[in-house]
Every structure is written in structure tokens, then in C-alpha cells.
Amino acid sequence: MTIPDGWLTDCANDLKASIAFLTRLPVAGATPTTGADIARAAWAFPLAGVLVALIAAVIYAVAHKIGSPPWVAAALAVAATLAVTGCLHEDGLADTADGFGGGDTRERKLEIMRDSRIGTYGVCALTLSILLRVSAIASLGNPIVVLWALIAAHGAARAAMPVFMALVPPARSDGLAFVAGRPSGERVITASVLGILILAIGLGPSLGIAALILLLVAIVLMAWLSVVQIDGQTGDVLGAVEQVSEIVVLLVALR
User: How much is the pTM?
Assistant: First the structure.
């Protein structure tokens, strides 16, 4: 069976687009990412997550090798993910927490989420997110265990994003979520299958199933909350979904 060259080219372009969108890593030959590119490349989000995880795992392993305490190594690993992604998802988490917590109407919540300033809810959400991730990684200890846990967490968390995009409509008639639209069912299924495989490989079958169930619960809860709060989702909410999903998988890995 011969694989068409055009198919391989499309896959490579989608992978480049996903890395260019989700990270700050230089991507050779990547074109500027538009809304349509994001929806088309959504299937490759888990692969971009694996790349982020590998970088964090290398930083952790180096810090561990030179004798750094687990908490220091874990903090450096998380710092590496912040640098690689440009705090893309953390920014979404903070804006979502500020909007959902600080606004009293749908319009006010959306207005707060567009404000570049960070409020008390955002600070608390970011602090908890970083503390939970650092403490989970530090508790895992062994660099090999950390490697597979990071791969599972980052890959599955980014697989959750296209699923969420397909489930929840955009809350605005403009903005990233509206421009990107909803990825096709085929691309959502591909991302989901990749996410499940990454979970199974990274955590093993039993923990992988447990993480998958908890991820589905988290996605449904986030979808319900988003609809109740702002009648849909935004790019910020997608960032929050990634953060919640990443934390869920890392906590499951502790078992």
C-alpha cells in the first residue's frame, strides 16, 4: 500500500502548525498560523505536547544528575515548559479564573478575560497550578518515571483541547475560538486516539484508563462551567482546559 506524498506533506504541515501555535520553538518552513490552520492541525496537538514533555524531562534529568533536590529539579522542569510554551496555557487559566470569578454578567466576564491585567483569582489559580505540577513531579522522583508521566500529561492535555473545541461552541463572534472554528470529527477522533495511546504508553493500561476517565469528567465539568458562565468557550478557556487536564494526569501518575 502506497502512502500519497500529498498526505505526508499535509501531516507534516499540520504538525508544524501545531508546534508553531502551541510553543515558541522555531519551526523551519512554518507559515503564519491562522484560525483555519489551528482547526486543521488540532489532531497533532498531542504530538506537540509530547515535544514539550521531552524538553521538560531532559531539564529534570540534568538537574537530577547534578544532584539537585527533587523540588528544584521539578521546578526547573515546569519552568522549561513555561519558557517553551510562552505561558500560553497559564495565561488562559489566569484569564479564565479572573473572568469566571470576578464578573457578575456574561458580558463582564468576557470583558475581564480580555483584560491583560491579572487579578486575585488569576494569581491564585496560577499559584495552585504551578504548585500542584511541581509537587507531583518532585514526588515521582525517578527521571524515567518523570519522563513518562510528563509525556502522558502533556500529550493527553493537548488531546483534550480539540475535543473541547468540538463539544463547546465559541462564546464570542470574534476572537481565536470563533476564527478557528470547530475541528472536523475526523481530526478530533485522531487527536483522541493519540491522546489515549499516549496515556496508555506513559502510565500503563490501568492508570491510563483511570486518567482517561478523570479527564473525561474534567472536560465535561469544564464544558458545563463554560456554558453556564459565558455560554461557550474562548481561547482562554482552552488554556484552562489544558492546565486542568495536565494536573489531573500528573496526579494520577502518583498512584
Answer: 0.92
> What is d(CA 207, CA 213) in angstroms, rounded to the nearest whole number?
10
What confidence tens digit (pLDDT) does each residue in 145-197 have? Answer: 999 999 999 999 999 999 999 999 998 777 665 566 678 889 999 999 999 99
pLDDT of residue 181: 66
**What are 207-240's pLDDT values in tens digits?**
999 999 999 999 999 999 999 999 999 999 999 9
How many alpha carbons lie under 13 Å from residue 219 in its C-beta half-sphere?
Answer: 22
Q: Which of 188, 197, 209, 191 is nearest to 255 (CA)?
A: 209
